[in-house]
Design brief:
alpha+beta, 120 residues, single chain, three-stranded antiparallel beta sheet
Length: 120
């Protein structure tokens, strides 16, 4: 096998290995976070709430196979979603959506959005 082809194969192998490891880590994180959310919901009483929040996908064209890091650094029309759960007799939830143009997904933006949600 020519040296250049061997290097290409090795590169492809390493990229595939990293992608599989990343996917497995994401699956494990997802299961553990879901269990923690369920545990918190079971502990809710009428004096407490559970807020789950995250950024949703942006309305921007994505380049083929962009990394997660590249996607989260982009500017554009961002959606920030929050679900507020509370127990008033039974479990109830309300969803809040903030759509923001040209916002970097930094802590300062999340704090302002959360502040607005809590004042609503």
């Amino acid at each position: 096998m020519p040296e250049e082809e061997l290097e290409d194969q090795l590169y492809t192998f390493k990229q595939s290995e990293e992608a599989i490891t990343s996917w497995k880590a994401n699956q494990l994180r997802s299961v553990r976070q879901d269990q923690a959310r369920i545990d918190c919901l079971n502990l809710l009483d009428e004096a407490s709430i559970l807020i789950t929040q995250d950024w949703a996908m942006k309305f921007l064209p994505a380049k083929y196979r962009e990394s997660q890091c590249d996607r989260f650094r982009k500017r554009g029309l961002s959606w920030h979603l929050r679900i507020v759960a509370q127990k008033v007799g039974r479990l109830q939830s309300q969803t809040f959506v903030h759509i923001i143009e040209n916002c970097l997904q930094y802590t300062s933006a999340v704090v302002r959005i959360l502040e607005h949600t809590l004042c609503s």
